[in-house]
């Protein structure tokens, strides 16, 4: 049987360092990569790649990879909740053989986004009012712009004067990319872009290192987002000793980083050179992460309807919990780095079906085909110009230039009835009319009853005139009526 192999070289039961090797249809494909949303890229005659909008950050994409009849969807990072500058991730019902999904927040169900925004603004405002400084460690692109828009709007509405700063250079770069790819932002940003660039902030200015020592309240966005190095860590060291100050962690922090330590309540930090830093400032965690939570992950799975799931980019214990939930509906794998998950695929053979055959099935009381509920259809499979097509027998004979040969089945049924043969046949006719609603039933002058193509004749037994012999003859196409025929209740 054909199979797909997936080997995480990074992000297998851990967060970050994503690197996924997929072997499909004799080809090896390395993921992560950026793609052009909404376009199919034909890499060669067999390999097809389609990108889907992933939310998360500007330009983030999920990819659907097809080789022949086998397919894989790889999400990378994605967000199923729209925010102030990006829309939600989306994917069509592509039904891949395997969906490889990040699982950073595998056990988290987030509260209302509006409530989180209100709490965030309240905490910042309270700290500013008491003369404190607020540090918000962020990644360069994504949550930084989201929170800047939030504070810019709040400062404008409240007429606040405390300065807001952003790491030098990042604002200019972000503005450039948002202007260039404005069509990838959400509808609100696109509508207001002609009148005003939402990313040209009036209240947020470029940050200089010397500003960290300025007296009075201020808000600073600085990178990186986990306080493990760089400008955010330098500012944190300067402000950590003052209880008036505050640090707000808006996203995920990997174990071992300063961000992870202070979120877990550590108040004495060992820094480089064995120096100890006392943490007296207020520490807050408010998840503005652009990763899907557990509910969002399940939402994407149900949208795509994969045959199998594979989780990466998550902590092993949390992934195991989500895996248990997913396995109530789908097969699920969670290989560690270096392990290979092998998924057996079912080769699919695409077959067209003629419109006339579908109409005939509907006329017989059938329903339209459902991919989830396969069922038999009476027709003839023909191959023409390297493609398969299911058509009615009559159409197949005509297209292939063949003569029709009818195959009919016959059987005899005995029943006791003292009436004459014609009366017995008439009673059978009335009985069939009452039980076979919607079928064409005829009583012909030649002494036969016809139900569709079923022919019924009655004759008396030579040994006993009270014993009637029913001769039934029918074509193979109408076997489905036989289940409805019963003469016991006449």
UniProtKB/TrEMBL annotation:
<dbReference type="GO" id="GO:0016180">
    <property type="term" value="P:snRNA processing"/>
</dbReference>
<keyword id="KW-0862">Zinc</keyword>
<dbReference type="InterPro" id="IPR022712">
    <property type="entry name" value="Beta_Casp"/>
</dbReference>
<keyword id="KW-0963">Cytoplasm</keyword>
<dbReference type="GO" id="GO:0004521">
    <property type="term" value="F:RNA endonuclease activity"/>
</dbReference>
<dbReference type="InterPro" id="IPR050698">
    <property type="entry name" value="MBL"/>
</dbReference>
<keyword id="KW-0479">Metal-binding</keyword>
<dbReference type="Pfam" id="PF10996">
    <property type="entry name" value="Beta-Casp"/>
</dbReference>
<dbReference type="InterPro" id="IPR001279">
    <property type="entry name" value="Metallo-B-lactamas"/>
</dbReference>
<dbReference type="GO" id="GO:0005634">
    <property type="term" value="C:nucleus"/>
</dbReference>
<dbReference type="InterPro" id="IPR036866">
    <property type="entry name" value="RibonucZ/Hydroxyglut_hydro"/>
</dbReference>
<protein>
    <recommendedName>
        <fullName>Integrator complex subunit 11</fullName>
    </recommendedName>
</protein>
<feature type="domain" description="Beta-Casp">
    <location>
        <begin position="144"/>
        <end position="262"/>
    </location>
</feature>
<comment type="similarity">
    <text>Belongs to the metallo-beta-lactamase superfamily. RNA-metabolizing metallo-beta-lactamase-like family. INTS11 subfamily.</text>
</comment>
<dbReference type="Pfam" id="PF21386">
    <property type="entry name" value="IntS11_C"/>
</dbReference>
<dbReference type="GO" id="GO:0046872">
    <property type="term" value="F:metal ion binding"/>
</dbReference>
<dbReference type="GO" id="GO:0016787">
    <property type="term" value="F:hydrolase activity"/>
</dbReference>
<dbReference type="Pfam" id="PF16661">
    <property type="entry name" value="Lactamase_B_6"/>
</dbReference>
<dbReference type="InterPro" id="IPR011108">
    <property type="entry name" value="RMMBL"/>
</dbReference>
<dbReference type="GO" id="GO:0005737">
    <property type="term" value="C:cytoplasm"/>
</dbReference>
<keyword id="KW-0378">Hydrolase</keyword>
<keyword id="KW-0539">Nucleus</keyword>
<dbReference type="InterPro" id="IPR048662">
    <property type="entry name" value="IntS11_C"/>
</dbReference>
<dbReference type="Pfam" id="PF07521">
    <property type="entry name" value="RMMBL"/>
</dbReference>
């Amino acid at each position: 049987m054909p199979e797909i192999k997936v080997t995480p070289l990074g992000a297998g039961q851990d967060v970050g360092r994503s690197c996924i090797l997929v072997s499909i249809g004799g080809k090896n494909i390395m993921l992560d990569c950026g793609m052009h949303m909404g376009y199919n890229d034909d890499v060669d005659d067999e390999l097809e790649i389609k990108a889907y909008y992933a939310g998360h950050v500007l330009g983030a994409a999920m990819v659907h990879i097809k080789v022949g009849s086998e397919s894989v969807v790889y999400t990378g990072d994605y967000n199923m909740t729209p925010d102030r500058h990006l829309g939600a991730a989306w994917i069509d019902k592509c039904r891949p053989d395997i969906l490889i999904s990040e699982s950073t927040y595998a056990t988290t169900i987030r509260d209302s986004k509006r409530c989180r925004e209100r709490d965030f603004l309240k905490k910042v405002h309270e700290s500013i009012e008491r003369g404190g400084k607020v540090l918000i460690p962020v990644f360069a692109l994504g949550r930084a712009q989201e929170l800047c828009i939030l504070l810019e709007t709040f400062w404008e509405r409240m007429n606040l004067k405390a300065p807001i700063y952003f790491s030098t250079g990042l604002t200019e770069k972000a503005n450039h990319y948002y202007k260039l790819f404005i069509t990838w932002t959400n509808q609100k940003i696109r509508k207001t872009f002609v009148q005003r660039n939402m990313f040209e902030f009036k209240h947020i200015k470029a940050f200089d290192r010397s500003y960290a020592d300025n007296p009075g309240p201020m808000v600073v966005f600085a990178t990186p987002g986990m306080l493990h190095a760089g400008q955010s860590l330098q500012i944190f060291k300067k402000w950590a000793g003052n209880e008036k100050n505050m640090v707000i962690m808006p996203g995920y922090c990997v174990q071992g980083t300063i961000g992870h330590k202070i979120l877990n309540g550590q108040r004495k930090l060992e820094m480089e050179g064995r120096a100890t830093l006392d943490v007296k400032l207020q520490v807050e965690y408010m998840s503005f992460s652009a990763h899907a939570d557990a509910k969002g992950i399940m939402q994407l799975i149900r949208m795509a309807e994969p045959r199998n799931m594979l989780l990466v980019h998550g902590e092993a214990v949390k992934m195991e919990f989500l895996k248990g939930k997913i396995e109530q509906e789908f097969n699920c794998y969670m290989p560690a780095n270096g392990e290979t998950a092998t998924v057996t695929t079912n080769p699919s053979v695409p077959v067209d079906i003629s419109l006339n055959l579908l109409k005939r099935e509907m006329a017989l009381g059938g329903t339209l085909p459902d991919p989830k509920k396969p069922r038999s259809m009476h027709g003839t499979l023909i191959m023409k110009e390297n493609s398969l097509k299911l058509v009615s027998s009559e159409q197949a004979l005509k297209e292939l230039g063949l003569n029709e040969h009818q195959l009919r089945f016959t059987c005899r049924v005995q029943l006791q009835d003292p009436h004459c043969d014609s009366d017995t046949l008439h009673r059978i006719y009335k009985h069939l009319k009452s039980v076979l609603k919607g079928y064409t039933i005829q009583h012909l002058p030649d002494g036969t009853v016809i139900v569709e193509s079923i022919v019924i004749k009655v004759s008396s037994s030579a040994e006993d005139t009270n014993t009637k012999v029913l001769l039934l003859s029918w074509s193979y196409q109408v076997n489905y009526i036989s289940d409805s025929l019963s003469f016991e209740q006449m």
